[in-house]
Amino acid sequence: MTAARAGDGTANSDRRPCSATDVRGRGFSSRAALPVMEGWIDAAVAPLPPLAVPLADLAATLAEGVVLAAPVTAPGNWPPADRAARDGVAVASSDTLGAGSYNPVPLPGAVTVAAGEPMPPGTDAVLPVEAMQTDGPFVEALGSAAPGEGVERQGEGLRAGTVLLKAGHRLRPQDLGLLAALGIDVVHVGARPRVRIVLAGGPRSGPETLCAMLAALVARDGGVVELVGPLPADRAALAAAYAAPGADLLISAGRTGVGEDDVAPLALADAGGLALHGVALRPGDSAALGWAGGMPAVLLPGEPMACLTAYELLAGRAVRRLGGRDPALPHPAVPAVTVRKLVSEIGCTELYRVRRTADGMVEPVASPHRPGLAGAVLADGFVLIPADSEGVPAGATVTLRCFDGTNL
Amino acid sequence: MTAARAGDGTANSDRRPCSATDVRGRGFSSRAALPVMEGWIDAAVAPLPPLAVPLADLAATLAEGVVLAAPVTAPGNWPPADRAARDGVAVASSDTLGAGSYNPVPLPGAVTVAAGEPMPPGTDAVLPVEAMQTDGPFVEALGSAAPGEGVERQGEGLRAGTVLLKAGHRLRPQDLGLLAALGIDVVHVGARPRVRIVLAGGPRSGPETLCAMLAALVARDGGVVELVGPLPADRAALAAAYAAPGADLLISAGRTGVGEDDVAPLALADAGGLALHGVALRPGDSAALGWAGGMPAVLLPGEPMACLTAYELLAGRAVRRLGGRDPALPHPAVPAVTVRKLVSEIGCTELYRVRRTADGMVEPVASPHRPGLAGAVLADGFVLIPADSEGVPAGATVTLRCFDGTNL
Q1: Closest-CA residue in chain A for B64?
Q2: 3-state percent breakdown (helix, strand, coil) of chain B, nearest 5
Q3: Are residues A374 and B206, on separate chains, in Cβ contact within 8 Å?
Q4: DSSP string, A265-328
Q5: Which of A271, A293, A322 is a domain's end point?
Q6: In a domain, B13, yes or no
Q7: Is residue B139 within 8 Å of B96, Cβ to Cβ?
Q8: B157 interaction partners in chain A (CB closer than 8 Å)
């Protein structure tokens, strides 16, 4: 086993000689706590420089998540001048005094305005069109307007310097509309990291089934995918694929366990360095972290549910950090009450796949021990039991992480 | 005003002669209730035929929302045979009887397996590697295993015919993984409707500021955008742009109000038919529905907040229906308690932009009367007050619609 090698681009304090050993046929002597793995990622992975993107180019990719790299503040008071708050006719309110449906009052200077348009000089109110009538070339008011009625005052909407959108904010359609209205046509947003996904195969595995899932996860977290493999369980071939230039992050799936052909950690040691192998996380406990050709690397187990879990808790964090996003889990968190007890081993973070019941509680679909994605497909989300807990009883309030923000 | 003309592709019962009249300079004599507008859309807009898409091609667009056009059921029991539920060594449990750390028991037929791999013939349990030791060529158990321990039984995960994913389900990354594992490599998903966005301008408007917002909204709802304009407020030019072939839906923004240059409804009448003009919705009350060159058409006001509101409640519904999605609002709905009274006019559906307070309540950011997107940008979501309500008092529980599923 080689020592962990320093990456070439990022300073951090975790470049100790590697303490991981070859676990094949022996098992793990210990596994790192999840927060230790997260801490390693946070130290090793720095955000890429932001991109300056024309506003018009953002619309098509907004749904994938685009985050602001710098806050946006109002460049001036908004609206910049008094403007109509509704469609109608701009009038001098004093001209409408006493007007009513039985007392039409002529309005020689009335001007039609639409909501949002500036108030014409000499006007201070907007009468709705329904409160007007035309009599040949003459316009008459059928009601009076108070000064300022139907008008949005200069600066009423926004004061100059107001922070409209914070750094890290995920842009929404209306944000693009306001930026355009403010004349901001280039926006600095988080980079889209180049993520290499290597599928590490072997005679009895089917890592190609992980391909679409991992590509979708990386895209969700803002990355651009380069797919390599499936490759055979060959240490040299994997090491070469890991160390090749052209990516910001390496994610490899498969061949991380204790079998004779589980050579991914050895290949990573050859390609740069194996920093941590084995995590106190179920499923996903054979994940590893390290360096490949100067870039940070995450090895995921090949068992599909373990792969999904280790992606969400480790690899996804690295992708999100590179792109300047919040590194925390992207799944909406809502409180929920357990229908049944969820048991968990002390010392291990465990993930339960759960579904919502008709009365808004959550029940487990699959225990942390059960392999396969069927449980994750039938689930609405997941509950994490932290390592210091032996589980929660029925009726406890837990944090449900929704797989999808639309299924609340 | 011409009569509403039937579309050429869709049978429905709403092809009555048009009752809308020219509102320019006169105002609306009446406005349709929001449910009437929704009902017109539902009758006029039928889903497009689904698409058969290779699984591998779905990963890149999954974040934009891809919905299943048909349910997916388990093609067989899953797993198809007993398989390892954890990494370790497959053994015949009877061979491990009495084994312990002080009583190693030789296991001549032990085979290393990874979680998810089939159980080799003659084995019925998986010992973790940590419960084994090797002594030269010999493998010894340091603990005993009960029959079935560490094994997932055939059919335990899924029974053949179980509905895994319903029609209309929005695909998630793990769904792609399971579909791949089941050998399903082509999926029938909702179509991506071709949506023409026409920006209808005029001397005093800035419809180009709506472009990015509308394109992002249509992309969020699964449409592919064709952008036309900004065009001048010219009836013939707009009618020609509206009626041109090549799209599934027309959305036009701007020039729907009561001003002399608000010619979009007249142009729609020329291009096919104006069915309904004016909706009891604030903001957004000058929206219109009809037909253009045989396709359904939605006209949105040019004031940005009115445009956003009318898109969400009318145009988005049409986009989502075409793509086979749930036509209801896509914004996650959560209960929330009002900090202040929200007043509303009887007979009009009103939209309040609201933000969450530190204690989880909601307070209005902007009244339905206030134009401009600043309020929508500073808001976390919105609350709709239905037409039959004069508002809700402080402390009432309302439904908060979140602008973004990640900000719960």
Answers
A1: A63
A2: 25, 30, 50
A3: no
A4: HHHHHHHEEEEEE-BSEES-TT-EEEEETTEEEEEE-SSHHHHHHHIIIIIHHHHHHHTTS--S
A5: A322
A6: no
A7: no
A8: 366, 370, 372, 374-375
* Residue B299 · residue B23 · CB < 8 Å: no
Q: Distance between CA atoms of A48 and A40, rounded to whole angstroms?
A: 17
Confirm if B147 and B124 have CB atoms less than 8 A apart.
yes
With contact defined as beta carbons under 8 Å apart, do B89 and B160 qualify? no
User: Which chain A residue is nearest to residue B111, measuring alpha carbons?
Assistant: A259
Judge if B337 and B306 occupy the same domain. no
Inter-residue contact A297 to A8 (CB < 8 Å): no
To the nearest whole angstrom, how far is the Cα of A12 from the nearest Cα of chain B? Answer: 31
- Do B269 and B389 lie in one domain? The reply is no
For residue A109, give how far its alpha carbon lies from the nearest alpha carbon of chain B (Å). 15
Q: State which residue of chain A sits closest to B26, comparing Cα positions.
A: A129
Domain-located, residue B385: yes
* Alpha-carbon gap: B249 to the closest alpha carbon of chain A (Å): 18
Q: Which of B178, B226, B281, B308 to mutate to test the interface with A (most CBs of A within 10 A)?
A: B178
Nearest to A62 among B219, B258, B403 (CB): B219
Same domain, yes or no: A281 and A375: no
Which tokens sit at A193? 């990291």
A64 and A180 fall within a common domain: yes
Q: Which ipTM was obtained for this model?
A: 0.83
Residue A239 sits in a domain whose CATH number is: 3.40.980.10
CA-CA distance, B58 to B70, in Å (whole number)?
16
CA distance B13 to chain A (A): 32
> What is the tally of helices (H) and strands (E) in chain A?
9, 26
Q: What is the pLDDT of residue B15?
A: 39
Rounded to 10 deg, the angle between the A211-220 and B173-181 helix axes is 170
Specify the pLDDT at position A339.
96
Q: Which domain holds residue A177?
A: 51-71+168-189
Q: Mean pLDDT, 10 residues at a time, over chain B (408 residues)?
A: 35 40 79 96 97 91 87 85 85 87 82 82 87 77 88 83 90 93 90 96 69 94 93 94 97 90 94 95 96 97 94 98 94 93 95 92 92 90 96 95 76
A140 close contact with B: CB closer than 8 A: no
Based on the fold, state whether residues B127 and B206 are members of the same structural domain. Answer: no
Pairing verdict, β B349-356 and B281-282? parallel
Helix (H) / strand (E) element for B217: namely helix B211-220
Which strand (E) or helix (H) includes residue B263?
A: none
Q: Is A85 on the interface with B (CB under 8 A)?
A: yes
Nearest to A285 by CA among A350, A370, A374, A199: A350
Q: Give CA angle at B373 (B371, B376), nearest 5°.
A: 110
Q: Show the tokens assigned to B194.
A: 């071709």
What does the alpha-carbon distance between residue A387 and residue A393 come to, in Å, rounded to a whole number? 16
**Among A322, A342, A363, residue at a domain's last position:** A322
A172-201 residues touching B, CB cutoff 8 A: 172-181
The helix or strand, by DSSP H or E, that contains position A57, with its residue range, turns out to be helix A55-58
Closest CA to A63 of B404, B32, B354, B244: B404
Residue A12 has pLDDT above 50, yes or no: no
Is residue B243 located within the same domain as residue B298? yes
Q: Is the distance from CB of B220 to CB of A173 less than 8 angstroms? A: yes
**Residue A2 tokens, joined:** 């080689």
Considering only CB atoms, A308 lies closest to which of B78, B87, B174, namely B174
Here the tokens at position B188 are: 């029938």
Whether residue A314 sits in one domain with residue A212: yes
Looking at the complex, report in whole angstroms how far the Cα of residue A6 sits from the nearest Cα belonging to chain B: 31
In whole angstroms, give the CA distance from residue A299 to residue A207.
13
Question: Do A172 and A134 fall within a single domain?
Answer: no
Q: How many domains does chain B have?
A: 4
